[in-house]
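Entry for the shared binder. Reason: the reviewer on the internal report wants the predicted structure included alongside the sequence.
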Amino acid sequence: MPDRATRSARRSAFTLLEVLLVVALLSVLAVFAWPDFSQARRSEQLDESTVRARALMAMCRAQAMNESRRYRVVFALDGSLAVYRQRDPLRAPEVYVRVEDDWAGIPASLEDAWVEAVMRLPEGPPPIKIDSESIQFTEFTEEPIAVDSLDEPVFVEFAPDGTSESVRWVIRDVLGRGRRITFDGRLGRIDFSDVERIDASASKRPKSEADLPSAYGE
């Protein structure tokens, strides 16, 4: 006859049926919870892409000054960003090569976010207005142009003194959210603002796979 300790151990142990029921219950919960996790991951793509874009511009500016050579950030027709630099500022100043450094290899726009539209800002006074209380970017009536409607990629070039053209672009994600980024190349400042959200079904990454013209780099 089983002693009291054995009977107590049997009562406290899980049966195989109980374990299977728990596993099945967790599986069902995971199925219902997965869309929420996926939605949360996608909702972070726009914010992370914005942060990465800011870091990319700052890094290119710093590298151009540190190396005394020109750097280019290319807004490709497929909505991605690429970094190029002069191969040799003295012997081949017109030849640009893709930057393979670790910092440049990290995608600036993530899987579920991309550059939807871009435009260089007009030359003249810096597109940033500074007063005693705040810093505001000058408003322009022109809107960035969809990258998949451009004839060739747009690029921003950083000179050895850190200055560049000023540019404005829009990042869009698969949820239809958008963010407008304005970069003042003369002062190296950047500003963000949300743009009107569109229906997720209409938010599609550009499909153009056109090669970058040789003038933009090798």
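Summary line for the report: The mean pLDDT is 80.
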